Input
Amino acid sequence: CLQRHPALILLTSPCLPSSSHTPPSMMPNVFIVPLFTLLLLPPTFGSTMKSVLDLMEMNATMKSYGKEKWKVLEEAMGSISADIEAHFDLQNSMDKMFDGFVQWGISNGTDGKEYPQPTPDDEVNHGGSDFWDGMANYQEHFLSPMAHDDSLVPGASNVLIQQPCNYASNVAYYSSMLSIWKGDGKEDHDWSITQSVRNLLAASFGSLGSGSAFFHGSGTQLGCRIDNAPIAHIALTAYQAAVSSLERDDVVVNVLPEDKMVNGTKNGTTVINEFVNIFADQSIFEWDESILTLNKDFQGDYKSTFAAIVTLNARLELPTRVGDLLLKFLCEVFGFNQDMTDFLFNEYDVRLQSLVKEKPELSGKDKRELLKRGIGVLVKIGYAMAWQEELFVGPWLASPGANKVGAWAMPFVNILADKLTSYSHDFAVKTGYEIYPDCKRCRAQEPHSKWHEQSAVGLTDLVYLTDDIDYVLRGGALVEDVPSVGESVDDGMTNVIKLLEEFLAGPEAECMRRGFANGGLECVADLWGVQGVLRGGVEECKEKDHGFENCFFTKLLNNNGESKLIDQCAQRDFEVTAFISCANNVVRGIVGRETSFFAIMENLL
Output
């Protein structure tokens, strides 16, 4: 092993290879597959999806995609397609999507007319009629051929990949497909969501992996639509499963105002079936219109559905007043417009609360447990959004050093969140080890690649959370309702609510209300007095391939009169709860006072 990662010490697992970083100016074109390496692979005339995965892997390691990995993916797609509620052949649809991707690349995103092709010297491809100008907003600009010949994928040598790392990193979503299909991660109760609904959700994760690869590979409007749709399908289907035991209310079920619902508004499972079949049944030149038509029949804004899930979770465990404060805070942080905010509070939430009141109230310990799990999911998805390059925008996205810090921190974030949620994940998902081709380099270099990897596990946990909500609404208990000695079942929840109120009224929350696109994080850094050292430490330490984190945290902590390194909080056999307590002390030393957010984490753990 080249480097011990402190997060792996927490796991007491084998250590990861070094996540070395090569500056883009010095980086070889690793995504060009040398002709001689194709001799390492036999000719393939089967699945286009498998051949594309082979090309991705060869670009990084000069090896084919793992046989065992593909065997499991193939088994999963076959099992999902055999479900009585799945009216599609998932592998065939994924093959056809990648066939279309190559066809779209050859025609340069047109209907077959001749348009000038870009060259690898172009920073961004502006040649195609379907090109999406928003591609220029991403940090990654590195055109690279998909392949040097057509021996694996016919026509691939004529396709230029727009964003190689952001293209390959979507393979992480296939791990989520497998987790949902197998039912991994839930240990305290059986699944409440049916296997059929889980299979359709798993199919959506598969579509997301392939569709987002289509987008970042092609840089087209069509790719953008294929990319965004499955996230909305996953959010809506999981949410509708969570509220399935409540009395039917179309506004609550569909997360749509009455005046925006059309006759025959479709549920999430129906939308998934129709979406997956588009690629198998239609020419690529029909896909765009079909997706646009389908999007009119359901709530296609996944941020709205995420807000509905958070609202539902809050109403089950928080007092009304505190829930109101939290939801208003989140609307401000995530930049919801006034129409969406008004709908959530004045129409959706009013109806939801009346339905929830018809159900038995949760025990104090179940309220605490559900809140803890909800915060854990928010930690994962919030961290993913910090690297999305869309909702939260700031100088850290363009900083090589900050990207390295972000990559280094990901396993810590996931271990902390897993401790909050109690959901289990395998080693690759926890740490990102070999979770997609060339992940070591891409994770440390590209912000949006971190979004793909982190959102994959965050969205998986969101499905687990909605299953927990459905379970408790149907009368299940997450925690045995037996008071500890000398403690009532509500004591722990009372403390958490008090800390949550303090946080929402505190200076950090006031900074965050600006929105992350308007300097919210910089405001917190200034508040803590670490803005300058953050920037200086990141830039000064960014070239250190080994010991980067020690360099960075030494500068951060010494600047504030602290000699303790954050690494000392992650000694071998250090339990996660003790680690958070230690880290809370370090933050207290930096800031000079208690911070409610870290106190909430420590209290919940």
User: Anything to note?
Assistant: Confidence is low (pLDDT under 50) at residues 1-44, 122-127, 483-489, 559-566. Strands lie at 144-145, 160-161. The longest helix spans residues 447-473.
